[in-house]
Amino acid sequence: MAHPDPDRLAAALAPFAPRAAPPRAAADGLVSLILDVSGLDEAGRAALERDAKAALMAVPGVTGVRALLTAERRERRLIAVGSGKGGVGKSTIAANLAIAMARAGARVGLVDADIYGPSQPRLMGAEDARPVAEDKQLIPIPTRYGVPMLSMGQLVAPGKALAWRGPMASGALGQLVDARWEGIDWLVVDLPPGTGDVQLSMIQKHRPAAAVIVSTPQDVALIDAVRAMDLFATAQVPVLGLIENMAGYLCPACGALSHPFGHGGAEAEAARRGLPLLGRVPLDLAIRTASDAGTPPAAGEGPEAALFAGIAAAVLAAMEPKRG
Ligand SMILES: Nc1ncnc2c1ncn2[C@@H]1O[C@H](COP(=O)(O)OP(=O)(O)OP(=O)(O)O)[C@@H](O)[C@H]1O
């Protein structure tokens, strides 16, 4: 049988450019075809493979086609949101940061790795959603805020305590981070508080591009925040800066700002370490009620949205030199 003509093979694949690489034919007429299926869904991939194979099979001398489908692996960057202590508002900040980054035009996903208290499904208004897996890979849940997400809380029944030990916890983290994050450039990862197994697994296996640390102004919270910063710094994960949450109490009646937890501590600590204070979020009833209702303030139009937009801009600007 005649060896397939390379020009005719190339012509047959022309309609599939730029997804089809130039085919190679062996002497027995078997053609190897490489197709780039990035961004296509299952049906799109199948159609492309079927049509390209059919086009090649029509070329004289072709006895068979072996297709290899490749998806361009986007370089996703992880931004870890950590805190030293629990309850400082880390999850609230992570959700609003992700939404504000998306509003600024970034392609952002959100991973809730807070195994011991996953609160992102509630914050993002996605409590009833359950992710499905395809080829053993989880598909992120879309949210109405343009930020797809996955949470430990979506993998178990609501309200069920996650009494996982280290290896199980880091295995679950892997499933969330290595999910099918198609079209996503940034993954904001809400870590559990402290410096435990999940943080170590995050640093060792998933190499965040950067970390931001959330603290309240109290001294105790700051001491723990410093510990969290040290963990990232030791592992050479750049810490972009500190976000001070519950920085002053915004009185809903008169609008006055007071400072029951102290003032200026986080800024001073950040400055001591040569780090920027990326933003300051007051203790604000509107933030709590909006968050609890699954309508993060960053998605709204109020002053809180502007505040989170400023923090997102600071984070994106700090990442700019690290984009490579
Ligand atoms: N700036 C704020 N103003 C008012 N309420 C806030 C603010 N930040 C967080 N909260 C509220 O504080 C509570 C704890 O916040 P959140 O769950 O984000 O903390 P966390 O640090 O992630 O906690 P954990 O470590 O337990 O997961 C929530 O009810 C949240 O709505």
Give the topology, please.
Layout: H1 6-13, E1 24-25, E2 30-36, H2 42-57, E3 64-70, E4 77-83, H3 90-103, E5 108-112, H4 120-123, E6 133-134, E7 137-138, E8 149-151, H5 166-177, E9 186-190, H6 197-206, E10 210-215, H7 219-234, E11 239-250, E12 257-258, H8 265-272, E13 277-284, H9 285-292, H10 303-319
Helix pairs in contact: 3-10, 5-6
The structure holds adenosine-5'-triphosphate.
Note the main attributes of this structure:
324 residues, alpha/beta, Rossmann fold, 2 domains, 8-stranded mixed sheet, 3-stranded mixed sheet, 13 strands, 21% strand, binds adenosine-5'-triphosphate
Task: Describe the protein's architecture and organization.
With 324 residues, the chain is α/β, with parallel strands linked by helices. It has two domains: 15-70, no CATH class; 77-323, P-loop containing nucleotide triphosphate hydrolases (Rossmann fold, 3-Layer(aba) Sandwich), CATH 3.40.50.300. It is 35% helix and 21% strand. The protein has ten helices and 13 strands. Strands 4, 5, 8, 9, 10, 11, 12 and 13 form an eight-stranded mixed beta sheet that branches. Strands 1-2-3 form a three-stranded mixed beta sheet, covered by helices on one side. The chain has a two-stranded antiparallel sheet with strand order 6-7. Helix 3 (90-103) crosses helix 10. The longest helix has 17 residues, at 303-319. The mean pLDDT is 87. It binds adenosine-5'-triphosphate (ATP).
